[in-house]
């Protein structure tokens, strides 16, 4: 993961020196695209990385959190409930800055990229925990009872009867959540992680032409969004065995 | 109960046999609602008992207690000489934990009113999942067993299908096979045909009759099908208001009910004489 060192200077210098300009209006729109595109692609890779790593960790946290909230042991439920409600009930932006500034004070120094991923995980993993919990509760009681009648252990009931059915219910919600997470990654630019939004904002300060810049950014996010949507459609089809 | 009762209470030959299931002073309340009141009930190995009674009389609760789906409020249940809901620790009975329940309930199987097949698994997988995971059978052996049972219930052709593509009657036949592959000593049927279309009731009842004829399995049949009860059961238990009001061989229960309650109840079914339900 790229750290917080910001834009690789060489890249930025190249982009600006290829098209020297002193006045903002000197850059005609067509130049904006060709000059910013290489930078945007760098940011694109970082954004994708954020989506993949934070998405995966949110997914894991969703299951841990969702199952913990349904635990037989009350203290486990309380702790999970507190953590989930805390990160669901506060804004990602504030969490991001809080982790960025507070963790070092607590003696934990993480690379900036990791701070962004952890913040995204805690926030979206908390939402995901509720998806997991409610999907498990949506499975009819008769399924558990049939599994008990076959003398399955609580673990076997969860693993082979409840979760596979609940997973199907979760998928569309997880698809939404991942798109939300993808959009949420734009905020990590604020703690100097060089994602797409970061580069576009830098370019805006240097060469202006906001309309063109943000149009490019919109399209870039939309492409990732479409890809995520298609991925989840495919998963939903894959897991629909047995339904008519 | 048996020692004090003079009258023959079952058509089954129980001489020298020990009950496989013993309910002793079993009570069950849901809040203020006392659903079962100090029930004593024995089931003998190989005996088939039909349980009849009006809605809300506690029949389902009776079966669910034995399947460990409901916890008794008071009393004990023994299965094959072992306490189901209690463990003996230093000669004292303490509430059973999940591990103990797991050990004892393996003897019991149950067929539900609404089938409760696993919708995400093929019919074959519905039947092999528990034998492989719970009994630890090799997959091949589990499949052999499953095929044998599917044949018995006339569902061999559907092994690769999913439950949603079957009719209610077919689903219930699969559910019966799924319970049978576990080879329980006691099978519970809770109104296995009351959620079915009238056309498919017969096929399911026939499957249960076949099993009843072949097996040495004990059966507890909760049913509103009086002619079926009469044909299959060795004993009929009439439940009302959380108690066994009357029990006996079907020939006596249906032709010669002793209590007014049972007479009233049977009137609704037009079973006097030949045991035909309307
Ligand atoms: N989980 C529960 N919580 C609260 N009350 C319950 C519960 N299960 C059953 N009861 C109540 O217990 C009583 C007996 O229910 P039960 O299902 O054993 O009756 P039943 O004889 O099987 O009736 P039916 O012929 O309608 O199936 C009913 O009054 C019912 O409302
Ligand atoms: Mg019932």
Characterization of this structure:
The complex is a heterodimer of chains A (244) and B (278). Chain A is built from nine helices and no strands. With 244 residues, chain A is mainly α. Chain A has a single domain (49-240), classed as MetI-like (MetI-like fold, Orthogonal Bundle), CATH 1.10.3720.10. In chain A, helix 4 (92-105) packs across helix 5 (112-137). The radius of gyration of chain A is 22 Å and the shape is flat. Mean pLDDT of chain A is 86; it is low at 1-23. Chain B is an alpha/beta fold and 278 residues long. Chain B has a single domain, classed as Rossmann fold (3-Layer(aba) Sandwich). Chain B has nine helices and twelve strands. Chain B has helices at residues 59-66, 98-104, 123-133, 139-152, 168-180, 198-214, 226-232, 250-255, 260-267, and strands at residues 21-30, 33-43, 48-52, 74-79, 82-83, 86-89, 92-95, 108-111, 186-190, 218-222, 235-240, 243-248. In chain B, helix 3 crosses helix 4, helix 3 (123-133) packs parallel to helix 5 and helix 5 packs parallel to helix 6. The longest helix of chain B has 17 residues, at 198-214. Classes of the chains: A mainly alpha (244), B alpha/beta (278). Bound molecules: adenosine-5'-triphosphate (ATP) and magnesium ion. Magnesium ion (MG) binds next to helix 1 of chain B.
């Amino acid at each position: 993961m790229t750290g917080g060192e910001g834009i690789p200077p060489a890249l930025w210098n190249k982009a600006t020196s290829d098209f020297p300009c002193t006045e903002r209006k000197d850059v005609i729109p067509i130049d904006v695209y060709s000059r910013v595109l290489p930078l945007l692609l760098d940011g694109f890779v970082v954004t994708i990385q954020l989506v993949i790593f934070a998405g995966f960790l949110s997914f894991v946290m969703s299951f841990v959190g969702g199952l913990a909230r349904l635990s037989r042991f009350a203290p486990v439920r309380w702790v999970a409930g507190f953590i989930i409600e805390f990160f669901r009930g506060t804004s990602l932006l504030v969490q991001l800055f809080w982790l960025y500034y507070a963790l070092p004070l607590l003696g934990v120094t993480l690379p900036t990229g990791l701070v962004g991923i952890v913040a995204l995980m805690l926030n979206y993993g908390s939402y995901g925990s509720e998806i997991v919990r409610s999907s498990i509760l949506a499975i009819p009681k008769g399924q558990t009872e049939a599994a008990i009648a076959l003398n399955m252990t609580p673990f076997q009931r969860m693993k082979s009867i409840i979760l596979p059915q609940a997973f199907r219910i979760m998928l569309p919600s997880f698809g939404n959540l991942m798109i939300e997470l993808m959009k949420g990654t734009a905020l990590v630019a604020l703690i100097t992680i060089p994602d797409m939004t970061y580069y576009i904002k830098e370019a805006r300060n240097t060469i202006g032409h906001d309309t063109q810049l943000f149009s490019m950014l919109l399209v870039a996010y939309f492409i990732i969004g479409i890809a995520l949507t298609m991925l989840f459609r495919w998963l939903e089809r894959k897991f629909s065995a047995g339904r008519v | 109960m048996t020692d004090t009762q003079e009258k023959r209470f079952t058509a089954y030959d129980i001489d020298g046999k020990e009950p496989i299931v013993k309910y002793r002073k079993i009570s069950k309340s849901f809040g203020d609602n006392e659903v079962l009141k100090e029930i004593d009930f024995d089931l003998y190995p190989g005996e088939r008992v039909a349980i009849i009674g009006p809605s809300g009389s506690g029949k389902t609760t009776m079966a669910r207690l034995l399947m460990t789906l409901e916890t008794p409020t008071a009393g004990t249940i023994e299965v094959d000489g072992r306490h189901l809901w209690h463990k003996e620790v230093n000669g004292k009975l303490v509430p059973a934990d999940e591990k103990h329940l797991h050990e004892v309930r393996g003897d019991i199987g149950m067929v539900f009113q609404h089938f409760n097949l696993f919708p995400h698994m093929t019919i074959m997988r519905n039947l092999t999942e528990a034998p492989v995971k719970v009994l630890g059978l090799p997959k091949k052996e589990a499949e052999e067993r499953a095929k044998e049972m599917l044949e018995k219930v006339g569902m061999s052709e559907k092994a690769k299908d999913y439950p949603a593509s079957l009719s209610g009657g077919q689903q219930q036949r699969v559910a019966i096979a799924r319970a049978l592959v576990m080879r329980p000593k006691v099978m519970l049927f809770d109104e296995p045909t009351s959620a079915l279309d009238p056309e498919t009731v017969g096929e399911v009842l026939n499957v249960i009759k076949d099993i009843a004829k072949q097996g040495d399995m004990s059966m507890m049949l909760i049913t509103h099908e009086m002619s079926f009860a009469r044909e299959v059961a060795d004993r009929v238990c009439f439940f009302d208001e959380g108690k066994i009001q009357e029990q006996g061989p079907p020939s006596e229960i249906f032709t010669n009910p002793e209590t007014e309650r049972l007479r009233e109840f049977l009137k609704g079914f037009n079973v006097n004489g030949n045991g035909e339900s309307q």
